[in-house]
Design goal:
Elements lengths: L2 H13 L8 H15 L4 E6 L16 H10 L4 H8 L3 E5 L8 H9 L4 E9 L2 E10 L7 H23 L3 H11 L3 H15 L3 H15 L3 H11 L23
Antiparallel strand pairs: 1-4, 2-3, 3-4
Length: 253
């Protein structure tokens, strides 16, 4: 698939929030998957500030242990927090000469193998919901055009979230946003349970759980809770609703 087609499909996905079974966690996960693919970044993560001014990491990006530690520090310092507070993109920065205010974040990020970090806000006019953190592990920064495109993705995601929140299923979306901020431990536990049950890696466990949720029209947290309770995936009694979005080919790997 060409890069142009991937970009076009990403904008379609980010606009597709007006469905009855909209899943915030899956929506944010797909944004990070697309960013990793299109921009060739090592990792991407969405940090939310809902409700209130403090950033949280819902961790829909399936972080490994190293990235999880970076995200914990990114809530308190670094490009993601700066992008959220200023509502402006933080241009690609070499972590070897990052600002002194980022010392703890920088040390953890470099220990994890990242070399460059940048971030863009999730914003719409005067409202900022959080930020999108982009991490590279190469000898070159994220190109300026890619950062501009990442901001466009973040803007589109913000519009989609706000539209979904303002329509008929506003209460559901608000609840999902709140739940997303506290879902990290649940999803991490479920990944571990499922990986042990199936004898697979944590990354494969998360991918399988997410695909199952998307295919059957279930919330990812619903699948995670069932895995924790039973060690296996839930078995829906009915077929998935026709409105459910299906992942684009190659998008969820």
């Amino acid at each position: 698939m060409s890069r142009e087609r991937k970009i076009a499909e990403t904008f379609v996905e980010l606009a597709d929030t007006l469905v009855a079974d909209f899943d915030v966690i899956d929506f944010l996960q797909q944004l990070t998957v697309r960013c990793r693919d299109i921009f060739a970044v090592a990792d991407a993560a969405v940090l939310l500030a809902y409700p209130g001014p403090q950033l949280y990491s819902p961790a829909p990006c399936d972080p490994g242990p190293a990235l999880a530690k970076v995200l914990d520090l990114a809530l308190r310092e670094g490009p993601a927090l700066d992008a959220y507070r200023t509502a402006h993109a933080v241009t690609p920065g070499n972590l070897a000469c990052a600002p002194a205010a980022w010392n703890n974040f920088t040390a953890q990020a470099r220990e994890a193998g990242y070399t460059y970090a940048s971030a863009v806000p999730l914003r719409l006019r005067q409202e900022t919901l959080g930020s999108l953190l982009l991490l590279r592990a190469t000898d070159s920064p994220l190109p300026a055009d890619d950062l501009t495109m990442a901001q466009a993705f973040a803007d589109a995601a913000t519009i989609g979230l706000l539209h979904a929140r303002s329509l008929e299923h506003a209460d559901t979306v608000n609840e999902q946003l709140h739940t997303a901020l506290h879902s990290r431990i649940t999803i991490e536990q479920a990944k571990g349970f499922f990986a042990a049950h199936r004898g697979i890696s944590l990354a494969d466990a998360f991918t399988t759980m997410r695909r199952h949720a998307r295919h059957h029209g279930l919330l990812l947290t619903t699948v995670a809770h069932h895995v924790i309770d039973t060690g296996d995936l839930p078995r829906p009694d009915s077929a998935p609703p026709p409105s459910r979005r299906q992942p684009a080919e190659g998008a969820s790997e």
